[in-house]
Design brief:
By secondary structure, the chain is α/β, with parallel strands linked by helices. The chain is globular and about 70 Å long. A hairpin with a 4-residue loop joins strand 8 and strand 9. The protein contains 18 helices and 23 strands. The chain has a 9-stranded mixed sheet with strand order 13-12-14-15-23-22-21-18-19, with helices on both faces. The protein binds glutamine.
Length: 549
Protein backbone atom coordinates (compact mmCIF):
# COMPACT_ATOMS: atom_id res chain seq x y z
CA UNK A 1 0.00 0.00 0.00
CA UNK A 2 1.50 3.32 -1.08
CA UNK A 3 1.64 5.99 1.63
CA UNK A 4 1.00 9.67 0.98
CA UNK A 5 2.60 12.82 2.31
CA UNK A 6 0.92 16.15 1.59
CA UNK A 7 2.85 19.37 2.02
CA UNK A 8 0.95 22.64 2.33
CA UNK A 9 2.15 26.14 3.10
CA UNK A 10 0.79 28.98 5.15
CA UNK A 11 1.32 32.64 6.14
CA UNK A 12 3.37 33.69 3.10
CA UNK A 13 4.51 32.26 -0.21
CA UNK A 14 8.15 31.49 -1.07
CA UNK A 15 8.73 29.64 2.19
CA UNK A 16 10.67 26.89 0.51
CA UNK A 17 7.95 24.24 0.43
CA UNK A 18 9.60 22.72 -2.63
CA UNK A 19 12.92 22.48 -0.88
CA UNK A 20 11.37 20.98 2.25
CA UNK A 21 9.39 18.45 0.18
CA UNK A 22 12.52 17.55 -1.80
CA UNK A 23 14.51 17.18 1.42
CA UNK A 24 11.90 14.84 2.90
CA UNK A 25 11.93 12.87 -0.35
CA UNK A 26 15.70 12.63 -0.25
CA UNK A 27 15.70 11.39 3.37
CA UNK A 28 13.05 8.73 2.74
CA UNK A 29 14.87 7.55 -0.37
CA UNK A 30 18.07 7.41 1.61
CA UNK A 31 16.25 5.07 3.98
CA UNK A 32 15.65 2.66 1.12
CA UNK A 33 12.11 3.68 0.21
CA UNK A 34 10.86 4.25 -3.31
CA UNK A 35 9.56 7.81 -3.53
CA UNK A 36 7.59 9.78 -6.12
CA UNK A 37 7.32 13.56 -6.05
CA UNK A 38 4.56 15.76 -7.40
CA UNK A 39 3.49 19.39 -7.35
CA UNK A 40 -0.08 20.64 -7.70
CA UNK A 41 -0.23 24.30 -8.71
CA UNK A 42 -3.46 26.24 -8.20
CA UNK A 43 -2.95 28.78 -11.01
CA UNK A 44 -5.05 28.59 -14.17
CA UNK A 45 -2.28 28.48 -16.79
CA UNK A 46 -2.00 24.99 -18.25
CA UNK A 47 1.72 25.07 -17.40
CA UNK A 48 4.32 27.75 -16.64
CA UNK A 49 5.75 27.51 -20.17
CA UNK A 50 4.02 30.66 -21.35
CA UNK A 51 4.63 32.69 -18.17
CA UNK A 52 7.28 35.37 -17.86
CA UNK A 53 10.22 34.43 -15.64
CA UNK A 54 9.38 37.59 -13.66
CA UNK A 55 6.05 36.01 -12.77
CA UNK A 56 7.12 32.51 -12.20
CA UNK A 57 10.89 32.16 -12.14
CA UNK A 58 12.48 29.45 -14.21
CA UNK A 59 10.50 27.02 -16.36
CA UNK A 60 11.88 23.59 -15.57
CA UNK A 61 11.89 21.17 -18.52
CA UNK A 62 11.63 17.40 -18.04
CA UNK A 63 12.88 14.60 -20.29
CA UNK A 64 9.38 14.07 -21.68
CA UNK A 65 9.29 17.72 -22.77
CA UNK A 66 6.84 18.98 -20.18
CA UNK A 67 7.42 22.55 -19.02
CA UNK A 68 7.01 22.54 -15.27
CA UNK A 69 7.35 24.42 -12.03
CA UNK A 70 10.85 25.14 -10.77
CA UNK A 71 10.22 23.12 -7.61
CA UNK A 72 10.53 20.03 -9.80
CA UNK A 73 14.15 21.06 -10.21
CA UNK A 74 14.58 20.66 -6.44
CA UNK A 75 12.91 17.25 -6.63
CA UNK A 76 15.31 16.08 -9.32
CA UNK A 77 18.37 17.52 -7.61
CA UNK A 78 17.52 15.91 -4.27
CA UNK A 79 15.90 12.62 -5.26
CA UNK A 80 15.81 9.97 -7.98
CA UNK A 81 12.04 10.19 -8.32
CA UNK A 82 11.34 9.86 -12.05
CA UNK A 83 9.45 12.98 -13.10
CA UNK A 84 7.01 13.14 -15.97
CA UNK A 85 4.01 15.13 -17.09
CA UNK A 86 2.14 13.48 -14.19
CA UNK A 87 4.42 15.18 -11.68
CA UNK A 88 3.01 18.69 -12.12
CA UNK A 89 -0.67 19.54 -12.40
CA UNK A 90 -2.26 22.97 -12.50
CA UNK A 91 -5.85 24.12 -12.08
CA UNK A 92 -5.77 24.83 -15.82
CA UNK A 93 -4.92 21.23 -16.66
CA UNK A 94 -7.43 19.79 -14.19
CA UNK A 95 -10.28 21.92 -15.57
CA UNK A 96 -9.20 21.23 -19.13
CA UNK A 97 -9.43 17.49 -18.63
CA UNK A 98 -12.78 17.75 -16.77
CA UNK A 99 -14.21 19.94 -19.54
CA UNK A 100 -12.90 17.54 -22.21
CA UNK A 101 -14.61 14.66 -20.39
CA UNK A 102 -17.82 16.65 -20.17
CA UNK A 103 -17.71 17.27 -23.93
CA UNK A 104 -17.23 13.56 -24.48
CA UNK A 105 -20.33 12.83 -22.42
CA UNK A 106 -18.39 11.04 -19.69
CA UNK A 107 -20.50 12.54 -16.89
CA UNK A 108 -23.74 11.08 -18.28
CA UNK A 109 -25.87 14.19 -18.06
CA UNK A 110 -24.85 15.15 -14.53
CA UNK A 111 -24.17 18.73 -13.45
CA UNK A 112 -20.37 19.01 -13.38
CA UNK A 113 -19.18 20.62 -10.14
CA UNK A 114 -16.04 21.43 -8.17
CA UNK A 115 -17.03 18.75 -5.69
CA UNK A 116 -16.91 15.92 -6.71
CA UNK A 117 -15.73 16.28 -10.31
CA UNK A 118 -12.78 18.63 -9.95
CA UNK A 119 -11.73 17.09 -6.63
CA UNK A 120 -11.98 13.58 -8.11
CA UNK A 121 -9.80 14.65 -11.00
CA UNK A 122 -7.23 16.00 -8.53
CA UNK A 123 -7.33 12.77 -6.51
CA UNK A 124 -6.83 10.77 -9.71
CA UNK A 125 -3.68 12.77 -10.46
CA UNK A 126 -2.33 11.86 -7.04
CA UNK A 127 -3.34 8.18 -7.31
CA UNK A 128 -1.70 7.88 -10.72
CA UNK A 129 1.71 8.05 -9.03
CA UNK A 130 0.83 5.49 -6.37
CA UNK A 131 1.80 2.40 -8.37
CA UNK A 132 2.63 -0.90 -6.70
CA UNK A 133 6.38 -0.36 -6.59
CA UNK A 134 6.08 3.02 -4.88
CA UNK A 135 6.31 3.30 -1.10
CA UNK A 136 5.63 7.01 -0.69
CA UNK A 137 4.11 9.74 -2.88
CA UNK A 138 4.93 13.27 -1.76
CA UNK A 139 2.44 15.82 -3.06
CA UNK A 140 3.21 19.49 -2.61
CA UNK A 141 0.32 21.93 -2.91
CA UNK A 142 1.43 25.24 -4.41
CA UNK A 143 0.19 28.57 -3.11
CA UNK A 144 -0.76 29.46 0.44
CA UNK A 145 -3.60 28.21 2.62
CA UNK A 146 -6.30 30.88 2.48
CA UNK A 147 -6.02 31.46 -1.27
CA UNK A 148 -9.38 31.00 -2.98
CA UNK A 149 -7.82 29.00 -5.80
CA UNK A 150 -6.17 26.45 -3.46
CA UNK A 151 -9.51 25.35 -2.01
CA UNK A 152 -10.32 22.46 -4.41
CA UNK A 153 -6.82 21.06 -3.88
CA UNK A 154 -7.10 21.20 -0.10
CA UNK A 155 -10.55 19.65 -0.25
CA UNK A 156 -9.16 16.88 -2.46
CA UNK A 157 -6.35 16.06 -0.05
CA UNK A 158 -8.82 16.12 2.85
CA UNK A 159 -10.98 13.56 1.06
CA UNK A 160 -7.90 11.55 0.15
CA UNK A 161 -7.40 10.25 3.67
CA UNK A 162 -11.02 9.03 3.67
CA UNK A 163 -10.33 7.10 0.45
CA UNK A 164 -7.06 5.46 1.45
CA UNK A 165 -7.24 5.54 5.24
CA UNK A 166 -5.96 8.12 7.72
CA UNK A 167 -3.09 5.85 8.71
CA UNK A 168 -1.73 6.07 5.16
CA UNK A 169 -1.59 9.86 4.93
CA UNK A 170 0.57 12.46 6.57
CA UNK A 171 -0.11 16.19 6.35
CA UNK A 172 2.81 18.55 6.79
CA UNK A 173 2.15 22.27 7.04
CA UNK A 174 4.98 24.72 6.49
CA UNK A 175 4.59 28.13 8.08
CA UNK A 176 6.58 31.24 8.83
CA UNK A 177 7.43 32.22 12.38
CA UNK A 178 8.57 35.81 11.91
CA UNK A 179 10.97 37.62 14.19
CA UNK A 180 9.84 41.12 15.11
CA UNK A 181 12.93 43.20 15.65
CA UNK A 182 11.14 45.98 17.55
CA UNK A 183 9.58 43.53 20.01
CA UNK A 184 12.64 41.22 19.89
CA UNK A 185 10.23 38.35 19.71
CA UNK A 186 9.26 35.48 17.46
CA UNK A 187 5.58 35.59 16.59
CA UNK A 188 3.56 32.39 16.57
CA UNK A 189 0.16 33.95 15.86
CA UNK A 190 0.38 33.77 12.03
CA UNK A 191 1.10 30.03 12.36
CA UNK A 192 -1.89 29.56 14.67
CA UNK A 193 -4.13 31.36 12.18
CA UNK A 194 -2.83 29.46 9.21
CA UNK A 195 -3.29 26.08 10.89
CA UNK A 196 -6.70 27.29 12.10
CA UNK A 197 -7.68 27.94 8.49
CA UNK A 198 -6.45 24.53 7.43
CA UNK A 199 -8.43 22.84 10.19
CA UNK A 200 -11.56 24.75 9.16
CA UNK A 201 -11.22 23.09 5.77
CA UNK A 202 -10.98 19.78 7.58
CA UNK A 203 -7.25 19.12 7.33
CA UNK A 204 -5.48 18.57 10.66
CA UNK A 205 -1.74 18.74 10.03
CA UNK A 206 0.34 15.99 11.61
CA UNK A 207 3.53 18.03 11.53
CA UNK A 208 4.10 21.75 11.52
CA UNK A 209 7.41 22.84 10.06
CA UNK A 210 8.23 26.37 11.16
CA UNK A 211 10.47 28.42 8.90
CA UNK A 212 12.38 30.90 11.02
CA UNK A 213 15.42 33.14 11.03
CA UNK A 214 15.93 32.75 14.78
CA UNK A 215 15.90 29.64 16.97
CA UNK A 216 12.45 28.90 18.39
CA UNK A 217 12.42 28.17 22.14
CA UNK A 218 10.85 25.01 23.59
CA UNK A 219 8.22 27.22 25.16
CA UNK A 220 7.20 28.71 21.82
CA UNK A 221 7.23 25.33 20.10
CA UNK A 222 4.94 24.01 22.87
CA UNK A 223 2.65 26.99 22.38
CA UNK A 224 2.35 26.32 18.66
CA UNK A 225 1.71 22.62 19.40
CA UNK A 226 -1.08 23.44 21.86
CA UNK A 227 -2.87 25.91 19.60
CA UNK A 228 -2.47 23.75 16.54
CA UNK A 229 -3.57 20.53 18.17
CA UNK A 230 -0.43 18.45 17.67
CA UNK A 231 2.04 16.84 20.13
CA UNK A 232 5.03 19.07 21.00
CA UNK A 233 7.55 16.90 19.12
CA UNK A 234 5.56 17.36 15.89
CA UNK A 235 6.40 21.05 15.69
CA UNK A 236 9.70 21.17 13.85
CA UNK A 237 11.94 24.18 13.51
CA UNK A 238 13.45 24.77 10.06
CA UNK A 239 15.97 27.59 10.35
CA UNK A 240 17.16 29.56 7.30
CA UNK A 241 20.04 27.56 5.87
CA UNK A 242 22.98 29.88 6.48
CA UNK A 243 25.19 28.81 3.64
CA UNK A 244 23.58 26.15 1.48
CA UNK A 245 20.16 24.72 0.70
CA UNK A 246 21.78 21.28 0.82
CA UNK A 247 21.89 21.67 4.57
CA UNK A 248 18.09 21.50 4.88
CA UNK A 249 17.77 17.67 4.96
CA UNK A 250 20.35 17.49 7.73
CA UNK A 251 18.46 20.06 9.78
CA UNK A 252 15.27 18.04 9.39
CA UNK A 253 17.09 14.89 10.53
CA UNK A 254 18.27 16.75 13.61
CA UNK A 255 14.63 17.24 14.51
CA UNK A 256 13.91 13.57 13.66
CA UNK A 257 11.27 14.48 11.09
CA UNK A 258 12.19 11.50 8.88
CA UNK A 259 11.86 9.07 11.80
CA UNK A 260 8.54 10.55 12.92
CA UNK A 261 7.15 10.24 9.38
CA UNK A 262 8.38 6.64 9.12
CA UNK A 263 6.75 5.79 12.47
CA UNK A 264 3.51 7.61 11.73
CA UNK A 265 3.10 5.84 8.35
CA UNK A 266 4.30 2.47 9.63
CA UNK A 267 7.02 2.29 6.98
CA UNK A 268 8.59 -0.75 8.61
CA UNK A 269 10.95 -1.48 5.73
CA UNK A 270 12.75 1.86 6.16
CA UNK A 271 16.47 1.38 6.81
CA UNK A 272 18.76 3.58 8.88
CA UNK A 273 20.03 6.77 7.23
CA UNK A 274 23.43 6.84 5.58
CA UNK A 275 24.25 10.46 4.87
CA UNK A 276 27.98 10.02 4.16
CA UNK A 277 27.70 11.38 0.61
CA UNK A 278 25.61 14.31 1.71
CA UNK A 279 28.01 15.19 4.55
CA UNK A 280 30.87 14.96 2.07
CA UNK A 281 29.31 17.45 -0.33
CA UNK A 282 28.53 19.84 2.51
CA UNK A 283 32.11 19.58 3.71
CA UNK A 284 33.32 20.53 0.22
CA UNK A 285 30.92 23.45 0.22
CA UNK A 286 32.03 24.57 3.66
CA UNK A 287 35.76 24.24 3.10
CA UNK A 288 36.48 25.03 -0.55
CA UNK A 289 40.09 25.04 -1.73
CA UNK A 290 39.56 27.65 -4.46
CA UNK A 291 37.27 30.47 -5.30
CA UNK A 292 36.10 31.73 -8.69
CA UNK A 293 33.81 34.51 -9.82
CA UNK A 294 31.39 33.66 -12.59
CA UNK A 295 29.33 36.32 -14.35
CA UNK A 296 25.88 35.17 -15.43
CA UNK A 297 24.75 37.66 -18.05
CA UNK A 298 21.01 37.36 -18.54
CA UNK A 299 17.90 39.31 -19.27
CA UNK A 300 16.31 38.26 -15.97
CA UNK A 301 19.44 38.43 -13.82
CA UNK A 302 17.67 40.57 -11.22
CA UNK A 303 15.07 37.89 -10.54
CA UNK A 304 16.57 35.40 -8.12
CA UNK A 305 14.66 32.39 -9.45
CA UNK A 306 14.82 33.02 -13.20
CA UNK A 307 18.00 30.98 -13.70
CA UNK A 308 17.62 28.78 -10.63
CA UNK A 309 18.97 25.55 -12.15
CA UNK A 310 21.93 27.40 -13.65
CA UNK A 311 22.93 28.84 -10.29
CA UNK A 312 22.54 25.40 -8.71
CA UNK A 313 24.52 23.68 -11.47
CA UNK A 314 27.32 26.25 -11.05
CA UNK A 315 27.42 25.36 -7.36
CA UNK A 316 27.59 21.69 -8.31
CA UNK A 317 30.51 22.45 -10.61
CA UNK A 318 32.05 24.15 -7.58
CA UNK A 319 31.47 21.10 -5.39
CA UNK A 320 33.17 18.89 -8.00
CA UNK A 321 36.21 21.19 -7.99
CA UNK A 322 36.20 22.00 -4.24
CA UNK A 323 35.65 25.58 -5.30
CA UNK A 324 33.46 28.33 -3.97
CA UNK A 325 31.58 29.83 -6.90
CA UNK A 326 30.71 33.50 -6.47
CA UNK A 327 28.03 34.43 -8.93
CA UNK A 328 27.73 37.94 -10.34
CA UNK A 329 24.27 38.39 -11.81
CA UNK A 330 24.58 40.88 -14.62
CA UNK A 331 21.50 42.16 -16.44
CA UNK A 332 22.34 41.78 -20.11
CA UNK A 333 21.39 45.38 -20.99
CA UNK A 334 24.13 46.51 -18.60
CA UNK A 335 26.80 44.51 -20.43
CA UNK A 336 26.97 47.30 -22.99
CA UNK A 337 27.97 49.81 -20.28
CA UNK A 338 31.63 50.69 -19.86
CA UNK A 339 31.85 49.89 -16.11
CA UNK A 340 30.16 46.51 -16.61
CA UNK A 341 32.53 45.67 -19.43
CA UNK A 342 35.46 46.45 -17.15
CA UNK A 343 33.97 44.14 -14.54
CA UNK A 344 33.45 41.33 -17.05
CA UNK A 345 37.06 41.50 -18.14
CA UNK A 346 38.07 40.56 -14.59
CA UNK A 347 35.83 37.58 -13.90
CA UNK A 348 36.99 33.96 -14.09
CA UNK A 349 34.15 32.75 -16.28
CA UNK A 350 31.20 34.12 -18.24
CA UNK A 351 27.97 32.17 -18.60
CA UNK A 352 25.20 33.20 -20.96
CA UNK A 353 21.91 31.50 -20.11
CA UNK A 354 18.87 30.92 -22.31
CA UNK A 355 16.23 33.51 -23.05
CA UNK A 356 13.67 34.90 -25.43
CA UNK A 357 13.15 38.23 -27.14
CA UNK A 358 15.39 41.01 -28.29
CA UNK A 359 15.92 42.99 -25.10
CA UNK A 360 19.48 42.71 -23.84
CA UNK A 361 20.72 40.60 -26.73
CA UNK A 362 23.34 43.12 -27.88
CA UNK A 363 24.71 43.17 -24.30
CA UNK A 364 24.98 39.40 -24.38
CA UNK A 365 26.82 39.52 -27.69
CA UNK A 366 29.23 42.06 -26.18
CA UNK A 367 29.79 39.70 -23.25
CA UNK A 368 30.71 36.88 -25.67
CA UNK A 369 33.21 39.17 -27.38
CA UNK A 370 34.87 39.96 -24.06
CA UNK A 371 35.07 36.26 -23.17
CA UNK A 372 36.52 35.41 -26.57
CA UNK A 373 39.04 38.24 -26.75
CA UNK A 374 40.17 38.12 -23.12
CA UNK A 375 40.32 34.31 -23.16
CA UNK A 376 37.90 34.05 -20.27
CA UNK A 377 36.21 30.62 -19.95
CA UNK A 378 32.85 30.91 -21.67
CA UNK A 379 29.76 28.76 -21.42
CA UNK A 380 26.76 29.57 -23.64
CA UNK A 381 23.43 27.90 -23.11
CA UNK A 382 20.61 27.93 -25.69
CA UNK A 383 20.18 31.64 -26.50
CA UNK A 384 23.71 31.90 -25.09
CA UNK A 385 24.94 29.62 -27.88
CA UNK A 386 23.00 31.55 -30.48
CA UNK A 387 24.63 34.80 -29.27
CA UNK A 388 28.05 33.17 -29.46
CA UNK A 389 27.34 32.21 -33.08
CA UNK A 390 26.15 35.74 -33.94
CA UNK A 391 29.20 37.29 -32.28
CA UNK A 392 31.60 35.02 -34.18
CA UNK A 393 29.85 35.75 -37.46
CA UNK A 394 29.99 39.49 -36.94
CA UNK A 395 33.44 39.92 -35.46
CA UNK A 396 35.48 37.04 -36.86
CA UNK A 397 33.79 36.01 -40.11
CA UNK A 398 33.09 39.63 -41.01
CA UNK A 399 29.35 39.09 -41.56
CA UNK A 400 28.55 42.49 -40.11
CA UNK A 401 24.77 42.21 -40.24
CA UNK A 402 24.64 38.68 -38.81
CA UNK A 403 21.70 38.07 -36.49
CA UNK A 404 18.99 35.66 -35.45
CA UNK A 405 15.68 35.99 -37.27
CA UNK A 406 14.15 36.08 -33.78
CA UNK A 407 15.57 39.61 -33.46
CA UNK A 408 15.76 40.77 -37.06
CA UNK A 409 13.65 38.99 -39.64
CA UNK A 410 15.44 40.80 -42.46
CA UNK A 411 19.02 40.28 -41.30
CA UNK A 412 21.38 40.01 -44.25
CA UNK A 413 23.05 37.02 -42.59
CA UNK A 414 20.49 35.02 -40.58
CA UNK A 415 23.10 32.78 -38.94
CA UNK A 416 20.43 31.71 -36.45
CA UNK A 417 16.98 31.04 -37.87
CA UNK A 418 13.71 29.40 -37.03
CA UNK A 419 13.75 25.60 -37.22
CA UNK A 420 11.78 24.23 -40.17
CA UNK A 421 9.63 22.20 -37.81
CA UNK A 422 8.52 25.42 -36.09
CA UNK A 423 7.48 27.50 -39.07
CA UNK A 424 3.84 26.47 -39.29
CA UNK A 425 3.18 26.55 -35.52
CA UNK A 426 0.89 29.30 -34.23
CA UNK A 427 0.05 28.17 -30.66
CA UNK A 428 2.48 29.23 -27.95
CA UNK A 429 2.05 26.61 -25.20
CA UNK A 430 4.19 23.47 -25.36
CA UNK A 431 5.08 23.91 -29.02
CA UNK A 432 8.85 24.48 -28.96
CA UNK A 433 11.37 21.72 -29.58
CA UNK A 434 11.15 20.33 -26.07
CA UNK A 435 12.64 17.65 -23.87
CA UNK A 436 15.37 15.05 -24.15
CA UNK A 437 16.95 14.71 -27.59
CA UNK A 438 20.08 12.81 -28.60
CA UNK A 439 23.28 14.61 -29.57
CA UNK A 440 26.35 13.09 -31.24
CA UNK A 441 29.59 14.69 -30.11
CA UNK A 442 32.76 15.13 -32.11
CA UNK A 443 35.59 12.89 -30.90
CA UNK A 444 38.35 14.96 -29.36
CA UNK A 445 36.11 17.96 -28.64
CA UNK A 446 36.04 19.55 -25.21
CA UNK A 447 32.45 18.47 -24.78
CA UNK A 448 33.27 14.84 -25.61
CA UNK A 449 36.16 15.02 -23.14
CA UNK A 450 33.90 16.36 -20.41
CA UNK A 451 31.12 13.82 -20.98
CA UNK A 452 33.58 10.98 -21.62
CA UNK A 453 31.09 9.84 -24.23
CA UNK A 454 30.10 10.66 -27.80
CA UNK A 455 26.40 10.00 -27.42
CA UNK A 456 24.48 12.13 -24.98
CA UNK A 457 20.85 13.02 -24.22
CA UNK A 458 20.06 16.54 -23.11
CA UNK A 459 16.90 18.59 -22.66
CA UNK A 460 15.88 21.26 -25.13
CA UNK A 461 13.54 24.24 -25.21
CA UNK A 462 13.89 26.36 -28.32
CA UNK A 463 12.43 27.46 -31.65
CA UNK A 464 15.55 28.76 -33.40
CA UNK A 465 18.69 27.00 -34.53
CA UNK A 466 22.14 27.50 -35.98
CA UNK A 467 21.52 28.09 -39.71
CA UNK A 468 22.85 25.05 -41.54
CA UNK A 469 23.66 27.07 -44.66
CA UNK A 470 26.45 28.88 -42.80
CA UNK A 471 28.00 25.71 -41.44
CA UNK A 472 30.99 25.51 -43.76
CA UNK A 473 31.71 29.20 -43.39
CA UNK A 474 31.93 28.81 -39.62
CA UNK A 475 34.08 25.69 -39.82
CA UNK A 476 36.44 27.37 -42.32
CA UNK A 477 36.51 30.42 -40.05
CA UNK A 478 37.70 28.40 -37.04
CA UNK A 479 34.59 27.51 -35.08
CA UNK A 480 34.27 23.82 -34.23
CA UNK A 481 30.91 22.14 -34.58
CA UNK A 482 31.38 19.81 -31.64
CA UNK A 483 27.92 18.27 -31.50
CA UNK A 484 24.93 17.76 -33.77
CA UNK A 485 21.66 15.85 -33.80
CA UNK A 486 22.42 12.26 -34.91
CA UNK A 487 21.31 13.08 -38.50
CA UNK A 488 23.88 15.89 -38.48
CA UNK A 489 21.30 18.53 -39.31
CA UNK A 490 20.87 20.48 -36.06
CA UNK A 491 23.97 22.04 -34.53
CA UNK A 492 23.93 21.34 -30.80
CA UNK A 493 27.43 22.29 -29.60
CA UNK A 494 30.01 24.79 -30.85
CA UNK A 495 33.50 25.33 -29.50
CA UNK A 496 36.60 27.43 -30.14
CA UNK A 497 39.80 25.44 -30.15
CA UNK A 498 42.17 28.38 -29.82
CA UNK A 499 40.57 29.55 -26.59
CA UNK A 500 41.13 28.14 -23.08
CA UNK A 501 37.47 27.00 -22.73
CA UNK A 502 34.74 28.21 -25.02
CA UNK A 503 31.78 25.83 -25.23
CA UNK A 504 28.24 26.73 -26.21
CA UNK A 505 25.30 24.35 -26.35
CA UNK A 506 21.82 24.57 -27.84
CA UNK A 507 20.35 22.48 -25.00
CA UNK A 508 19.94 23.02 -21.25
CA UNK A 509 22.53 21.01 -19.34
CA UNK A 510 21.56 22.77 -16.11
CA UNK A 511 18.44 20.59 -15.86
CA UNK A 512 20.50 17.46 -15.44
CA UNK A 513 22.94 18.49 -12.74
CA UNK A 514 22.74 17.20 -9.18
CA UNK A 515 24.85 18.13 -6.16
CA UNK A 516 25.85 14.47 -5.88
CA UNK A 517 26.42 14.10 -9.65
CA UNK A 518 27.57 17.50 -11.02
CA UNK A 519 26.97 17.95 -14.73
CA UNK A 520 30.16 17.25 -16.76
CA UNK A 521 30.06 20.60 -18.59
CA UNK A 522 29.57 22.62 -15.40
CA UNK A 523 32.36 20.62 -13.79
CA UNK A 524 34.66 21.35 -16.75
CA UNK A 525 33.63 25.03 -16.91
CA UNK A 526 34.44 25.62 -13.24
CA UNK A 527 37.72 23.70 -13.62
CA UNK A 528 38.60 26.06 -16.49
CA UNK A 529 37.62 29.06 -14.35
CA UNK A 530 39.94 27.81 -11.59
CA UNK A 531 42.78 27.52 -14.14
CA UNK A 532 42.00 31.00 -15.43
CA UNK A 533 42.10 32.40 -11.92
CA UNK A 534 45.42 30.70 -11.20
CA UNK A 535 46.83 31.90 -14.47
CA UNK A 536 45.85 35.50 -13.88
CA UNK A 537 49.14 37.37 -13.81
CA UNK A 538 48.27 39.68 -10.98
CA UNK A 539 45.63 38.06 -8.84
CA UNK A 540 44.86 41.39 -7.20
CA UNK A 541 43.62 42.97 -10.38
CA UNK A 542 41.48 39.91 -10.89
CA UNK A 543 39.57 40.34 -7.64
CA UNK A 544 35.95 41.25 -8.15
CA UNK A 545 33.98 42.40 -5.17
CA UNK A 546 30.41 41.19 -4.74
CA UNK A 547 29.27 44.66 -3.87
CA UNK A 548 30.39 45.95 -7.25
CA UNK A 549 27.13 44.55 -8.43
N1 LIG B 1 14.86 32.21 -28.03
C1 LIG B 1 15.69 31.16 -28.47
C2 LIG B 1 14.92 30.09 -29.23
O1 LIG B 1 13.73 30.01 -29.13
C3 LIG B 1 16.43 30.53 -27.31
C4 LIG B 1 15.54 29.78 -26.38
C5 LIG B 1 16.21 29.48 -25.05
O2 LIG B 1 17.23 30.06 -24.72
N2 LIG B 1 15.59 28.62 -24.25
O3 LIG B 1 15.52 29.30 -29.93
Amino acid sequence: MTKHIFVTGGVVSSLGKGLTSASIGMLLENRGLSVRMQKLDPYINVDPGTMSPYQHGEVYVLDDGSETDLDLGHYERFTHSPLTRDSNWTTGQIYKSVIDKERHGVYLGKTVQVIPHITNEIKDCIKRLATEDVDVVITEIGGTVGDIESLPFLEAIRQFSLDVGKENCVYIHLTLVPYLKAARELKTKPTQHSVGQLREIGVQPDFIVCRTEQPISQEELAKIALFCNVPDKCVVEERDADFSIYQVPLDLVEHKLDQMIVDRLGLTKAKALDLTKWHDLLRRLRRPENEVTIAVVGKYAKHKDAYKSIYEALDHGGIANSTNVRILRIPSEDAEREETRALLEKVDGILLPGGFGERGVEGKIDAVKIAREYEIPFFGICLGMQCAVIEYARNVLGLVDANSTEFNKDAEHPVVCMMDSQRSIVDMGGTMRLGAQPTSLLAGSRAAGAYKSLDIMERHRHRYEFNYQYRDQFIDGGMTIAGTSPDGKLVEVVELDDHPWFVAVQYHPEFKSKPTVPHPLFRAFIAAAVRHRRGAKDSKTNEVQDDEY
